[in-house]
Amino acid sequence: MEAVLQPTREGDVSFAHNVPFRLEAGGSLQPVSIRYAIYGELNANGDNAVLVCHALSGSARVADWWPEMFDSVFDLSRSCVICTNILGSCYGSTGPASVNPATGRLYGPDFPLVSVRDLVRAQAHVLDELGIAHLRTVIGASIGGMQALQWAVDYPDRVGHCIAIGAAPLSAMGLALNHLQRKAILLDPKFQAGQYDPGRQPAEGLGLARAIAMCSYKSAELFGERYARKPNRNGEDPLSSMHDRFDVAGYLDYQGEKFVQRFDANSYLVISKLMDNFDLSLGYASEHDALRRIKAHVSLIGISSDWLFPPEDVRALAERIEAAGAESDYTEFESSHGHDGFLAEVDAIAAVVNGRVSARRLALTKHKVRAIVCS
């Protein structure tokens, strides 16, 4: 088994010691600590920085959850790749599992509502501390793509190329699925209004939330190919017992069981809610006014089988960005992997990252790319 690439360095940036970090929804945090990881080195000109923004359950250690990108996209002889763990998460940054200095207890359910704008402002503090003034590229998928877009809007002079994969404001279906995931956690008796002890979190509710999410991350085609109506591979017979499962049910239960061992339920609530609330118009007169601020080249990528962020929603956002006067293009690649296609179809993503998209380049069939260009 190939060893996971280790960061060149990693650490924490702490700020807001004297003045609270004000949040968009009206709350505040004081102080704030953000975990970061860096792969490669910033060059003398400071123009080779690539910021990777992670999705709901990712961490600052990009190579742990997106290792293929270092094989075909990120060349560390030319790029310095940075990632931060987002505010509200549980992998080193201030979140519900952190101690609230005002009480001496964990924040838990008292952790304030945060937004994608808050995540990006916290990241900007980290980059300032690290001496990174400009980003050659900011890239992310899902919630990571939301952050990349927010960077292009809020810090137009700091971003050269914004790449957002499977990201747009959530549709009613996406909002519904996130609502059910949070309800699964809240209804678990072990949730205890969010005041559960560390190590005794609401595993049943969080596991069910993850299983629902996995359905939204995959596609019907993929589930049909992998599981169809086969009995669970452990030998259970769903035709003879109420409790025996089909193979797809065994898969979902397994994903839930794995997830509860590595993630915090309160963090899940916080991050899924900020995903719901993503709206580029917030803080501006309108979405159009927000998009007019963009100076970066924006590349949006849709995934053909993604029903959490349908490709038509991603394309519509690309068209609105173009209509606002920004330089934009849209790529849609064919994949049966659903929303998780961003983890499985790295070659298609590489076609966009390794050079700005053009109609000619997007015709490359080896990347299974179907191109619709908005520039």
Features:
single chain, 375 residues, alpha/beta, two-stranded antiparallel ribbon, 13 helices, disordered C terminus
How many β-strands, per DSSP?
13
Oligomer: single chain
Enumerate the spans where pLDDT stays under 50 for 5 or more consecutive residues.
357-375
Mean pLDDT across the residues is 92
Quick one: overall form?
A: globular
Share in β-strands: 15-25%
Helix content: 25-40%
Structural class label = alpha/beta
Main sheet properties: 9 strands, mixed
First and last CA, distance:
43 Å
Strand order of the largest sheet: 1-4-6-5-9-10-11-12-13
Number of helices: 13
From N to C, what is the helix and strand string? EEEEEHHEEEHEHEHHHHHHEHEHHE
Rg from Cα? 21 Å
Written overview of the protein:
- The chain is of the alpha/beta class and 375 residues long.
- 35% of the residues lie in helices and 17% in strands.
- The protein has a nine-stranded mixed beta sheet, with helices on both faces. Strands 2-3 form a two-stranded antiparallel sheet.
- Residues 357-375 have low confidence and may be disordered.
